[in-house]
Amino acid sequence: MEYLVNRRDIDFILKEQIHYEKLFELPEFKEFTTEMFDMVLDQSFKFAQQEIAPLNASGDKEGCLFDGKTVKAPKGYKEAYQHFAENGFIGMDVPATYGGQGLPLTVAMPASEFFSGASVSFMMYPGLTRGAAHLIETCGSEALKNIYVQKMYSGVWAGTMCLTEPQAGSAVGDLKTTAVPQPDGSYKIKGGKMFISSGDHDLTENIIHLVLARIQGDPENSTKGISLFVVPKLKVKKDGSVGESNDVKTVNIEHKMGIKGQATCTLSFGDNDQCVGHLVGEPRSGMKQMFQMMNEARLLCGMQGLSISGTAFEHALQYAKERVQGQGKTIVAFPDVRRMLMLQKAYVEGIRSLLYHTGYYIDMGKGHPNPETKAYYQGFADLLTPMCKAYGSDMGFKVTELAMQTYGGYGYISEYPIEQYMRDVKISSIYEGTNGIQALDLLGRKLPQNGGQVVQQFYAMLDEFVTKNQNEPALKVELGEFKKALDLIAQVAMSFMEMTGKGDFNYPMLSATPFLNMFSNVVVAYYLLDQAVIAHVKLAKLLEEKVDDPSQHKGFIKGNDEAAYLDGKIKTARFFVHQVLPTVRATVKSINSGDRSALEIIL
Amino acid sequence: MKIAVLVKQVPDTETKIRIKGDSSGIETDGIKFVVNPYDEYAIEEAIKTKEKNGGGEVIVVSMGPARTVESIRTALAMGADRGIHIDDAGLQADSHVTAKILAAALQKEGGVEVIFCGKQAIDGDCSQVVQGVAELLGISQVMIAVKFDLREDKKGALIQRRIGGGSQEVYDVSFPVIVGAEKGLNTPRFASLPGIMKAKTKPLAVLKAAELLGESKPRVSFVNYRLPPERKAGKILQGQEPAQMAAELVKLLREEAKVI
């Protein structure tokens, strides 16, 4: 099925909202030019359309094949994976040291949107490889780095991350996999892992698992005793060539609702006590290390929500403009269809801006020469990551549902792409820390970050935006509504802190998910309003240049794609502020009610 | 072996073309420009030929305004070695003048053995430049090429071209030759990320179109631009017996469409 995406919107965010040329101020990106960035985006888009998108529906129908020993990925995946690697896409945003391309995340985000939107099942293979390789690159010894990283970025070997065990899902600390020190400095790994994405396949000659395990004697039932190990599927000889089996066995593959082209495996390590692992960094620092990959993966979950819902919306929009029903009208003319399309558009464009900005904050947080600025942006990235993950995936699912509703019966049948999108995107709210865990992360870790300083700085940025633009007549009402919602967030956050101060943790935890949603609604409203302000200035300029008679404005906007796009930005922000943002008030009312029924009922 | 590729930058195939208010041309505001799709086959074949030859140099030559440099860089990122941008500011070029300028640039370069070019550019769709350049340089040309096999002596090639009715012709041509690339000649590679990084430092010379052209003048003057008339909505015959509808269809084809 054809991959559709709004390139104009992506360019708008990068060039007119973020101004990606600001990245050239960072030492690591000063060699780049906007021309190079654009070429990277063009090629990524072309690759997504031509090489990845054709595998999406076929991979879904065919699924992965497990013959009791090994797993075969769907047809065409192997070739596409190799091409993907040859073009340098696996390590596009990592340093050049071991074969990365050194591009900023700000540019890798839209590329990631293209790839995931074209086929999320496929994209998870190189995605996990990149995450695992980058973790070894960041935390591993020189020896580990030299053996593994380059081969993973270049597509010779793939990677995974192995956390979950049957009894240890959200509670990673309960894991039972053990590591026994050996005289040569390596470890013998023993245990079972499940739900391992890209756990086994035939795309590469070897698969490098990153396994969380407990070194014999380290604290039990706690994340403090967990260490991280590199465990290759096939042993790697001293010269870097691949040798015999490392006693890693594929036990099963899951049969899932969606992402069927993705091999989700149950793996057994060390059935014959022959599984060798190599410690990454220091013992007992596995959780901290894994969080590097985890935070990246959480952002990518949000990206899965965005990319799939982004293409679902474009399909629904196209369909609505073609489907004729009743009085010879295309259904895009009907108010209820317009309502559904606007919701999709607002969520997609708002979340796109949120995610791309978070990518930009991460770049600034990593590379800005001024330590204060660096900390400022890194704080924003940390604060927004759980919102990107949870809100991005939940609303991503909601958008695919609205897209299906727009199609009517045709959306429900597999001849059209929507039902697959809806099945594929559902997983993003579950894995990499469920969305419930994200809400607790926001409330328990991110709000109190630096004594609340980060969230205060973020509030200040949004507040300043209102002050700066509140006299703009075209958006005055909307900015006023936004300011009220923003202040409600601050109030609720304060009341949570009071409650936890008094030792009441359950009520804030009960309210964590509604709080994440209302906070995200405010954040998305901010990015949409920021876009509207920019678009308003540009549209006014365009109209002044091209149209002499103000009574002709409407007609001009209708016939001019650029003007219609800019006008659409203003209307989308207004729609979101009036149709979605009022839910913030409702959520506050429900949180302030103090209703503890859910905690007290016998279930 | 010196290999040249002639490349044109054209509006993306998905662009909605708008005509300027005074009908003097198309609105270029907000248009996305890309390498002419047929030229992508030419670039790929040039790089492949260099690889098969076990060495040589691929030079990308493109005429157009400043933005044309983006297309040259794309070709360099795909693997070409250096570029020549012919700045045509202030020139309203027709196919004749374009061929003259390109031929002059190639002559100035000297020693080019194989020239690849798309068989036509998808903007003007004239398909005249390849033949023009061949004529002006006095070299062989093979248009609508679907296969290019370097001869063992590496001084010529067996080139297959598509002719009407599904037939093909094969030419055994000694260099120098200019080849007009058709879809199917190859599958163009992507500009890889490492390629894009390298392209930035590859040499790119700028020549002035007017200087290469000398005294020649365009033979075509552009009077005005118009969009093709919009296609009228189709008619759907329904609600009758098939035989009745068939009769109705024949009647319409005869009387309304006047095609039978």
Instruction: Note the total helix count of chain A.
Output: 21
Our count of domains of chain B comes out at 2
- How would a textbook summarize the main sheet of chain A? 5 strands, mixed, barrel
Strand content of chain A: 5-15%
Terminal CA distance of chain A:
45 Å
Broad structural category of chain B: alpha/beta
CATH class of the largest domain in chain B: Alpha Beta
Task: Assign the CATH superfamily of the largest domain in chain B.
Answer: HUPs
- Overall SS class of chain A: alpha+beta
CATH architecture of the largest domain in chain B: 3-Layer(aba) Sandwich
The termini of chain B sit apart by 56 Å
Average pLDDT of chain B = 93
> What is the share of helical residues of chain B?
25-40%
Outline of chain B, from the CA principal axes? globular
Shape descriptor of chain A reads globular
Measured by DSSP, the beta-strand proportion of chain B falls in: 25-35%
Oligomer: heterodimer
Order of helices and strands of chain B: EEEHEHEHEHEEEEHEHH
Question: What is the fold-level CATH name, i.e. the topology of the largest domain in chain B?
Answer: Rossmann fold
Overview of this protein structure:
- The complex is a heterodimer of chains A (603) and B (260).
- With 603 residues, chain A is of the alpha+beta class.
- Chain A has 21 helices and twelve strands.
- Chain A has a domain of 156 residues.
- In chain A, the strands form three sheets. A five-stranded mixed β-barrel of chain A has the order 4-5-12-7-6.
- In chain A, α8 packs antiparallel against α9, α9 packs across α19 and α10 crosses α12.
- Chain A is globular, with a radius of gyration of 25 Å.
- The two termini of chain A are 45 Å apart.
- Chain B is of the alpha/beta class and 260 residues long.
- Chain B folds into two domains: 212 residues, HUPs (Rossmann fold), CATH 3.40.50.620; 30 residues, no CATH class.
- In chain B, the strands form two sheets. A nine-stranded mixed β-sheet of chain B has the order 9-8-7-10-6-1-4-5-11, sandwiched between helices. Chain B has a two-stranded antiparallel ribbon with strand order 2-3.
- In chain B, α2 links the parallel β4 and β5.
- The termini of chain B are far apart.
- Chains A and B meet through α2 of A and α2 and α5 of B.
